[in-house]
Design a protein that fits this description.
The chain is an alpha+beta fold and 72 residues long. The protein has one domain: Alpha-Beta Plaits (2-Layer Sandwich), CATH 3.30.70. It has two helices and four strands, in the order βαββαβ. β2 and β3 form a beta hairpin.
């Protein structure tokens, strides 16, 4: 779902690959398909699609994701 766009290069979403355990919850809860699983880790594949809702952060069991809602 890459049709919805926000201002480019302003999203605050980051992922700590060292902490990611590959549970894939972020890929399930993200409403815009920002994440994909690659090599058993979540990766951000569409940063500009992030609306900073925080669903991924709130569902990550190991706190591997961070976003500041409303900044980007």
């Amino acid at each position: 779902m890459r049709d919805l766009r926000y201002i480019e290069d302003v999203s605050t979403l980051v992922i700590d690959q060292e902490k990611c355990i590959g549970c894939s919850l972020c890929t399930v809860v993200c409403p815009h398909g920002v994440f994909e699983m690659k090599e058993r880790k979540a990766v951000i594949v569409d940063l500009d699609g992030c609306m900073e809702c925080g669903a991924c952060v709130n569902n990550c069991p190991v706190y591997a994701l961070n976003v500041t809602p409303g900044v980007g």
